[in-house]
Amino acid sequence: MSVWSELTGQDQAIAVFRGAASTAGIASSAQQMTHSWLITGPPGSGRSNLAYAFATALISGDPDGDEPTRIQVEARSHPDLHVLATEGVIIKRDDVREIVRRSHYSPSVGRHRVIIVEDADRMTEQTSNFLLKELEEPPERTVWILCAPSEADLIPTIRSRVRSVRLQVPSIADVAALLVRRDGVDPVLAERAAREAQSHIGMAHRLATSDEARSRRAETLRLALEVRSAATAVATAARFLEIAGDDAKAITELRDAEERAHALHSLGVAPGQAVPNALRPQLKALEDDQKRRATRSLRDGIDRILVDLASLYRDILLIQLGADVELVNRELLERLEHAAASASPARTLATLDAIQAARDRIDGNVQPALALEAMLVSAIRRPTTERGAA
User: Fold this and answer.
1) pLDDT reading at 174 higher than 60
2) What is the mean pLDDT of residues 248-272?
3) Element (H or E) spanning 67, and its range?
4) Average pLDDT, rounded, for the chain
5) Phi and psi of 324, rounded to 5°?
6) What number is the average pLDDT over the span 68-77?
7) Element at 17 (helix H, strand E)
8) CB 43 within 8 Å of CB 150
9) Which pairing describes strands 142-148 and 113-117: parallel, antiparallel, or unpaired?
10) Each residue of 110-169: pLDDT tens digit?
């Protein structure tokens, strides 16, 4: 099975990477492969999946990859693969220092040594400048692959030293087909999950395979449509934070427990045995990493709520304008039509602007509760029509 077979909606990008992998070992300068890459695309477009598939092809020396290498890359255990994926909000210079040192080693068993930097947009400017020389003159058999939402998220000097490949948003049909083929999801559920996730592959998978995720999303939209006053806006914001927290816990709790059990096993501590004082610093470092990941997961959960709300008010605006465009939340059509009749298109646009403002404020470290409350005040709808309002 080709390493590219489970990727969807990115045929052009796959062709670029497969072609590069097929010429990676050719010495001719006309066909010599770029050794610094940047993969950009919206969240859920499959940036990291494509990066790991490319890494598999490069390390194995086969444009379609081989099974042993694929298994090791998926487990992040291949000796020639190094991954920098922050569990926090930013990537600091100290995070990069060790991986830069490793990049100068020759490959141990594969054709190339591959360094993948997920969420490269989270690098500070100091970190970016530190990485600059490595991207400009990497060792001959080392390949850097950076992933970010857009080129604009990186400093100009980084952008000028990498080959950029832009991904497109996969279609709903492509994402649904992937869920059916890869995860065995019912086609009807797969289509709904892909549509409600707005083609975000990871989120579509969660919605298709988790009743709790679907329930949390449905409650989020229902609460937004029931905001009638400033008091309910404040209460709804508090509930949104609880929903985001529950969503973050569902993602992190199992992983945290598995990481702790693995760490204790690696340190030779039997289940139920007291941890020796000499080993406590290692566990403390693991717990600190998990706390940073929890903070980021909470932020990501809040952002997912805001994205879902944007789809809700986008649907309301389409109904108000009479646009012949498919709705994201068509199962709520009756409630959407009622909401569309309770406000003018201008009010709906103002709410969409407020949602984006809330995302920007939270990204700027404003307290999420305050940002959500301010956003929901703009979403107040009373059962009287305001269609003629300015």
Assistant:
1) yes
2) 73
3) helix 67-74
4) 86
5) -90, 70
6) 90
7) helix 11-23
8) no
9) parallel
10) 899 999 998 898 888 888 888 888 887 778 889 999 999 999 999 999 999 899 999 988
Overall average pLDDT of the 72-79 stretch: 89
User: Tokens at residue 373, please?
Assistant: 């409350």
Residue 207: burial class (beta carbons within 10 Å; 0-12, 13-18, 19+): buried
Read off the pLDDT of each residue in 277-283 and give the average, rounded to a whole number: 76
169 contacts 45 by C-beta, under 8 angstroms: yes
Q: Where are the beta strands (DSSP E) in 269-385?
A: none
Tokens representing 110 are 């594969």
Q: Measured between alpha carbons, how far is 163 from 138 in angstroms, rounded to an integer? A: 14
| 309 CB-near residues (< 8 Å, 6+ apart) | 220, 221, 224, 355, 375, 379
Taking a C-beta distance cutoff of 8 angstroms, is the pair 85, 119 a contact? yes
Element housing 145 (H / E): strand 142-148
- Contact predicate 226/338, CB 8 Å: no
Query: According to the model, what pLDDT value does residue 89 have?
Result: 62
Task: Give the Å distances, CA to CA, from 199 to 49, 172, 302, 334.
Answer: 15, 5, 19, 24
Whole-number Å distance between alpha carbons of 267 and 282: 9
Q: Per-residue pLDDT averaged across 227-255, rounded?
A: 87
Determine the Cα–Cα distance for residues 74 and 328; give it in Å rounded to an integer. Answer: 32
Asked if 227 contacts 382 with a C-beta cutoff of 8 angstroms, the reply is no
CA-to-CA dists, residue 221 to 22, 72, 232, 243, 317, angstroms: 48, 41, 14, 12, 15
Element (H, E) at 36: strand 36-40
Q: Choose among 314, 302, 297, 293: nearest CA to 371.
A: 302
Instruction: Please say if the pLDDT value at position 87 is more than 70.
Output: no
Check pLDDT > 70 for residue 236: yes
Segment of 92-101, 274-283, 351-360 carrying the highest mean pLDDT: 351-360
